[in-house]
Write a structure and sequence with these properties.
Helix content: 40-55%
Shape: elongated
Strand order of the largest sheet: 1-2
Strand content: under 5%
Distance between the termini: 70 Å
Length: about 140
């Protein structure tokens, strides 16, 4: 584990004798950081972001499922084509979703290779289970 306080103390020691205004501002900022209690590990506890659950264990989001289905229907597609089909102006969010799908094992993808996205077998089975229609509730037999 990295001792952030020790790093800050060393940085403050090197900036102590500086007369440059930028260095003095950095020194003041580092002293404020040292005055606050240090957190050794940052923990996200928001349930909607997955909390501490690793990305590989989180279920696929609706957007990720939509992207995975589109990739399955359109083999050898590019991120730009997916973004255009989804109505998204930036390709960064599509790339992040594809990376998350890759980490979950639902997609094979080489980020710098053009048109290399393919759903894996677990991804295809997930698409099939998601595409199944929900069972209809049993009718009571009464008709109005």
């Amino acid at each position: 584990m990295i001792d952030e306080a020790a790093i800050l103390r060393a940085q403050v020691a090197t900036l102590e004798g500086e007369r440059d205004p930028v260095a003095r501002a950095a020194l003041a900022r580092k002293r404020k950081q040292l005055a606050r209690p240090m957190q050794s590990v940052r923990v996200t506890t928001k349930a909607e972001t997955g909390g501490n659950i690793p990305q590989a264990e989180r279920p696929a989001t609706a957007r990720q499922m939509e992207i995975l289905c589109w990739i399955a229907e359109h083999p050898r597609c590019s991120i730009a084509e997916i973004a255009k089909a989804m109505g998204v102006t930036s390709t960064k969010c599509i790339g992040a979703a594809c990376k998350a799908l890759q980490v979950k094992g639902l997609l094979t993808w080489q980020p710098r290779a053009i048109r290399s996205m393919r759903p894996t077998d677990p991804g295809i089975s997930l698409i099939r289970t998601a595409a199944k229609p929900a069972p209809r509730p049993a009718s009571t037999g009464k008709q109005s």
